[in-house]
Write a structure and sequence with these properties.
heterodimer, A: 100 residues, mainly alpha, 78% helix, B: 164 residues, 74% helix, globular
Chain lengths: 100, 164
């Protein structure tokens, strides 16, 4: 029998990893990867909750999460292409216009 | 089954760490695909077969391939190794990282309270029939809202992608 806490520890670990990526990486592609890892951890915790209460409602939330992640990634990648066309780089700090 | 579960857990933890500190974006995406497949194996162990199949089809099959195609449109020069560690030295990063570590220990502390209740994973299978009855019965409005969301993102991506 697998205790429920051990899967929740995995979900929390993935969430923290995704949050750390948003801070330490300056590449826009890695920012999107970090958001993706965060979404995966959230969907994992929804499935765990649905398993614990033996209801299908967690799976409904999983479907909502997965489709919102897909739409978010579509918009994010088109913004990435826009950034690359304008500045020819993926560094987020290049969009600073308040500097100087 | 229990040993296999912990094996998959450790593999997905390690590959997620490697994915965010790797300097080559393409290798990083491949490591992320391994993480996603590990998570879907955990779904299959839990008995959520529909969710596991959906995870592989949508995340690994659609979103990651989208990433790879966009990466092929750009010609990136690979960052030098250890550039991440160099950028960590600045004082700006120390406060957020301390806050993140604090958040991690706070969440862990809230889990230790669950130890008294002896919660275990149930051996039930939630198949696609149950989900379909729920999804097209009481949650019908959710399907409509999700379709509107996807249409919105399609229009926005089309608008951002065209050359001005």
């Amino acid at each position: 029998m697998i205790p429920l806490q051990h899967i929740l520890i995995l979900a929390i670990f993935l969430f923290i990893i995704g949050l750390t990526t948003l801070i330490i990486r300056k590449n826009f592609l890695f920012t999107l990867i970090g958001l993706e890892i965060t979404m995966i951890s959230v969907s994992l915790s929804f499935i765990i909750a649905g398993n614990h209460w033996e209801q299908a409602d967690g799976h409904i939330m999983f479907i909502i999460t997965i489709s919102s992640a897909a739409s978010e990634i579509g918009i994010g990648l088109s913004l990435l292409l826009k950034l690359y066309r304008h500045y020819n780089t993926l560094n987020i700090d290049s969009i600073h216009e308040m500097k100087e | 089954m229990k040993l296999f579960f912990y094996f998959v857990c450790i593999i997905s933890m390690i590959t997620s760490i490697v994915a965010i500190i790797h300097s080559n974006p393409m290798h990083s995406l491949l490591y992320l695909i391994i993480t996603i497949i590990g998570i879907s194996i955990i779904f299959f162990i839990l008995g959520a077969e529909f969710a596991g199949a959906l995870e592989v089809i949508i995340y690994a099959g659609a979103i990651m391939i989208l990433f790879v195609f966009v990466l092929m449109l750009l010609n990136l020069n690979i960052e030098k190794k250890y550039q991440i560690i160099k950028s960590l030295n600045s004082l700006l990063f120390i406060a957020p990282i301390i806050l993140i570590v604090l958040l991690f220990f706070l969440l862990m502390y809230s889990l230790f309270d669950l130890n008294n209740y002896n919660l275990y994973v149930n051996n039930i299978v939630i198949d696609s029939k149950k989900i379909g009855i729920k999804l097209f019965g009481p949650y019908l409005i959710v399907v409509e809202l999700v379709s509107v969301l996807l249409l919105n993102s399609l229009i926005l991506a089309f608008h951002l992608g065209k050359k001005s």
